[in-house]
Amino acid sequence: RLKVLPGGRLPRYVRVNTLKTTVEDVVDYLKRDGLTYLGQASRLDDLTLKEKQFVKDIHLPELLVLSPKTDFHDHFMYKAGHIILQDKASCLPAYLLNPPPGSHVIDACAAPGNKTSHLAAIMKNKGKLFAFDLDAKRLATMSTLLLRAGVTCQQLANQDFLKLDPDSPQYKDVEYILLDPSCSGSGMVCLRDDASSADQEKTQARLASLASFQLRCLNHALRFPRLKRIVYSTCSIHSQENEDVVAACLQQNPNFRLVPLLSQWPERGLEPLTQCLRASTSKTRTHGFFVALLEKHSEAGNKKQ
Ligand code: SAM
C-alpha cells in the first residue's frame, strides 16, 4: 500500500523497469491501488498533480509521474524491482546514450547504479555492461540494486576509472560510455545551501578541483579505441563542472562533436553549448542537472531528437 509523506516539492518520478514489467502493467497496478490515471502529460503543468493522481511523462516513455508526497519505499513494486525511484533528469543519460542490445558499454562511475540498471534495461540485458566505482561500499549497494532489478549483463569492478587501460583487449568492443562522475551535487534540491553562508573561496577551490577531475575522466573515456558515443552528466548547476568541462574536452579532442539533444526539452546548455541539456526545478520540475552527448565525427547521422 502507498504511504503519503509530508512535504516534498518535486513530483515523484517512477521509472518502470522493463526488465521485469511493462508500463501498462504498472499503470494497471496503480489504478487497482486506488490511484487516478490522467493519461499522457503534454505540458509542464500536467506534472503538478494532486494526491493519488498520476500521468505518463511528457518526454520519457518509461516514466510515470505522481504527486510529490507519494512514497513507494515499502511498496511491492519497488521491493521487487519492478519500479525504480529515480529523478526524471537522472533518467536522461541512459535514455540519450541508447546503447543497442548486444553492445559493449562502460558505466565509468556507476554506484549506486540507477543509471546502470537503466542501461541494462535499454540493452535488454544483452551485451556487456562494464560498471566501475572507486568506492567499495557504494559498489556493494549497487550489487543489491542490480540484483533486485534483474540485471544480468553487468560486470562490476571496484576500480579507479582513470587507471583503466583503454587498450586492454577486454574493452576493444566498447562503443558507448556513460560518464556521471562525482560532482558538487549543487543541483540536488535538498543539498542546496544558503549561498551567503558558504565560504566562497573554499567553494571555488572545490569546484576547480572537481572540474579538473571531471575533465580528466572525460578525456580518458575518449581514449577507448572503438568509442562511438559518450554521455557526460552531472547533478551540478555550475558551468565550471558542465559546459566548461565539455568545451575544454572538445577543444582537446577535435575528432568529437556534440549531438543536439531533444529539441522539445525546455532548458538548454548555456551558450554556445545549446546542444546540451540542463534541468531545474523551475523549468523541468526536476533536480538541477546537466547532460551532453558527444560522438566521434565518423559516426555522424542517426541522431536522436
Ligand atoms: N551514476 C551513478 C548512479 O546513477 O547511480 C551515480 C554516480 S555518483 C555521481 C559518482 C560516483 O563516482 C561515486 O559513486 C564515486 O564513488 C565514483 N567515483 C569517483 N571517482 C571515481 C574514479 N576515479 N573511478 C571510478 N569511480 C569514481
UniProtKB/TrEMBL annotation:
Molecular functions (GO terms): RNA binding; RNA methyltransferase activity
Domain of life of the native organism: Eukaryota
GO cellular component, one term: nucleolus
Domain spans labelled SAM-dependent MTase RsmB/NOP-type: 2-297
Keyword annotations from UniProtKB, A to Z: Methyltransferase, RNA-binding, S-adenosyl-L-methionine, Transferase
Catalytic activity line of the entry: a cytidine in 25S rRNA + S-adenosyl-L-methionine = a 5-methylcytidine in 25S rRNA + S-adenosyl-L-homocysteine + H(+)
Keyword Methyltransferase applies: yes
Ranges in coiled-coil conformation: none
Residues annotated for S-adenosyl-L-methionine binding in this entry: 109-115, 133, 160, 180
Record-annotated active site: 235 (nucleophile)
Keyword match Iron: no
GO biological process: rRNA base methylation
Similarity comment: family membership: Belongs to the class I-like SAM-binding methyltransferase superfamily. RsmB/NOP family.
Protein known as: NOP2/Sun RNA methyltransferase 5
Protein species of origin: Sparus aurata
Residues of the full protein shown: 123 to 427 of 525
